[in-house]
Amino acid sequence: MYNRKNEAREERLRQKLDAGLMSDRFPEVANIVVRMKYVKEGTTSLLRTLNFYPGSHAFFRMSCLGEGCVDGGLDLTRVITMMIRNHKTSAKGELRCENKDPSAVHADMAYEVSMKYA
Ligand SMILES: [Zn+2]
């Protein structure tokens, strides 16, 4: 378990580096603010805000934070690339963990994205 978790973390780091920088991938974007509310098992919630700048990695996959969930995640990549393509400045919605393993706890997430263009 420990090793699988470590491997998953290294894999995420590799994906993050592979994603490239915001300034290369999305030069038209000045700033992205992602506000997330994680909900685990319908009760505990956690608020998290992420900021992306031109020097940030264009990596929008968040880990699940669920107990026992090793390589699940909540992926905002599609949401964000669609926003940029349509030049939208705000979006909100919900995501579920991609890992459907019933023996682990998984998180749901409500998100709000606001975007500023250069
Ligand atoms: Zn999960």
Mean pLDDT: 91
Relative helix content: 25-40%
State the helix count. Answer: 3
Number of DSSP strands?
A: 6
Largest sheet: 4 strands, antiparallel
In oligomeric terms, what are we looking at?
A: single chain
Report the radius of gyration as a whole number of Å.
15 Å
The helix-strand sequence is HHEEEEHEE
Low-pLDDT windows of residues:
none
How does this structure look, described?
It contains three helices and six strands, in the order ααββββαββ. By secondary structure, it is of the alpha+beta class. It has one domain (2-117). Strands 2-1-6-5 form a four-stranded antiparallel beta sheet, with helices on one face. The protein starts with a helix and ends with a strand. The model has no long low-confidence stretch (mean pLDDT 91).
Short description:
Helix content is 25%, strand content 38%.
Helices and strands, with pairings:
Layout: H1 2-18, H2 22-25, E1 29-40, E2 44-52, E3 61-63, E4 73-75, H3 77-85, E5 90-96, E6 107-117
Antiparallel strand pairs: 1-2, 1-6, 3-4, 5-6
The chain binds zinc ion (ZN).
What are its keywords?
118 residues, alpha+beta, two-stranded antiparallel sheet, 3 helices, 38% strand, globular, binds zinc ion
